[in-house]
Amino acid sequence: MSEPPRRFRQPWRLIWRLPLFFLHVLIGIPVTLFCFLPAVGRVPAGPMTIRQRAHQTWQSLLLRIFGIRLRISGRLPDGPCLVVANHITWLDIVILHALWPMWLVAKAEIARWPLIGALARLAGTLFITRGSTESRRRVARRMSALLKRGERVGIFPEGGIRREAGVKLFHAPLFGPAIRVGVPVVPVAIRFEREGQGNLHDTVVFAPGENFLRNLLRVMAEPPMVGRLMIGPPLIDQGDGRRRLAARAREIVKRYYDD
């Protein structure tokens, strides 16, 4: 027997969050895209460029519209690195971009999602087809080129979203570019929580049979929550290879996630 669809806990929150969301899309996206123009986007804005700052601001405001307050512990190292994080929901992408507008590797299906797919392309997402060796190799080559250029790249090495809470096995193949280029791997744990209720994995993860639009609206109707981002120490390959590096990164992410 299939599970019934999860209910909207506080649907009245959509009365103001939905209009804010549409305004954020209709006004925020054109403003952000203007900042993506080469002549504008390359202008420095502190440690970022105008393009990166606009991208980060748009994502941060999107989290606030959903009632998500971002709390970050730790910091990314200076310079290029490979960020590896656990994967719970599509909001993980928004959270990592709110931390730093990095290049992210995501499943090819996201490219077909309404609005999010188009935004992901504009943000520089690298889409990978699951089970395709050629797609993985193509993405790995692109990752290496970006890391050599001084960019930060992020991956979700669990290989997809799982309904069960916890940190799953980290698949090792996409750790290869960091080893080849000689940049650190930075483990990052993502967790959604609310005071008195603990981990909200079951709240934000896709319910059985739930599509993207329903999940978006259901999470938008939730009471305020915290998106916690815990950044671990940078890891350097010690000659043990990508499998051992992936295992070390998972150990740190799991420890932070379970804490």
Please state roughly what percent of the residues sit in beta strands, choosing from under 5%, 5-15%, 15-25%, 25-35%, 35-45% or over 45%: 15-25%
Q: What letter string, H or E per element, gives the SSE order? A: HHEEHEEHEHEHEHEEHHEH
Oligomer state of the chains in this structure:
single chain
Q: Are there runs of 5+ residues with pLDDT below 50, and where?
A: none
Give a short account of the largest sheet: 8 strands, mixed
Estimated radius of gyration: 18 Å
User: Treating each run of at least 4 consecutive H or I residues as one helix, how many helices?
Assistant: 10
The dominant shape is: globular
Strand element count: 10
Portion of residues within helices:
40-55%
List the helices and strands and how they pair.
Blueprint: H1 14-35, H2 38-41, E1 44-45, E2 48-49, H3 50-65, E3 68-73, E4 81-85, H4 91-99, E5 103-107, H5 116-123, E6 126-128, H6 133-148, E7 152-155, H7 176-181, E8 185-194, E9 198-199, H8 201-204, H9 212-220, E10 225-231, H10 242-258
Parallel strand pairs: 3-10, 4-7, 4-8, 5-6, 5-7
Antiparallel strand pairs: 1-2, 8-9, 8-10
